[in-house]
Amino acid sequence: MNPVVIDAAKLSAMLGSATPPVLVDVRPQSAFEREHLPGAKNNCVFEIAFLDRMPQVAPDRGVPVCVYGECTGSEESLMAAEKLCRNGYAQVFELRCGIEDWIKEGFTVEQTLADPTPPAPIPDGSIPIDLKESRIRWTGRNLLNKHEGELALKSGHLVFDHGTLKGGEFVIDMHSVRSTDLAGDPLHDVLIRHLIDHDFFDVEKYPEARFVINSAVPLPGAHAGAPGLEIHGMLTLKDVTAPVVFAATHGFTDEGKAAAQASFPIDRTKWNVKYGSGRLFRNLGMHLVNDQIDLQLRIVTA
Question: d(Cα 202, Cα 299) in Å, to the nearest integer?
Answer without folding.
Answer: 26
